[in-house]
Amino acid sequence: MEDKSFEISLKCLFCDSPLKADSEKEFDSGDLIECIECHELNDYDSVKEIAIEYGTAQATEYAKKELEKSLKKLFK
Ligand SMILES: [Zn+2]
């Protein structure tokens, strides 16, 4: 299996823009992240939960494709 990393980006709950954190800054549970686009405050826990859900879906999809590829090789 080739190496592939999944980009999981945090997105604004209000306008769907990517949330950019100050580099080096780590968020903690309960933090509010201000969106640079709409200036709404996003609850870090909610944003993270959505990002994890999205990342999990992507990883599942990727694993499924890899599995299909190996199965096809097996049965050619
Ligand atoms: Zn926003």
Would you spell out the secondary-structure blueprint of this structure?
Elements: E1 32-34, E2 41-43, H1 44-74
Antiparallel strand pairs: 1-2
The structure holds zinc ion.
Zinc ion binds at residues 12, 14-15, 17, 35, 37-38, 40.
Give the spatial strand order of the biggest sheet.
Answer: 1-2
Using only C-alpha atoms, the radius of gyration works out to: 17 Å
Structural class: mainly alpha
Determine the strand fraction and express it as a percent band.
5-15%
Please state the overall shape, judged from the principal axes of the Cα atoms: elongated
| Overall pLDDT score | 87
Ligands in the structure?
zinc ion
Order of helices and strands: EEH
Q: Which runs of at least 5 residues are low in confidence (pLDDT < 50)?
A: none
Number of strands: 2
Q: Give the biggest beta sheet.
A: 2 strands, antiparallel
Termini distance? 19 Å
Domain count: the total is 1
Helix content: 40-55%
Discrete helix count? 1
Descriptors:
76 residues, 1 helix, binds zinc ion
Give a description of the structure:
A two-stranded antiparallel ribbon has the order 1-2. It is mainly alpha-helical and 76 residues long. β1 and β2 form a beta hairpin. It has one helix at 44-74, and strands at 32-34, 41-43. It has one domain. The radius of gyration is 17 Å and the shape is elongated. The structure holds zinc ion. Zinc ion binds at residues 12, 14-15, 17, 35, 37-38, 40.
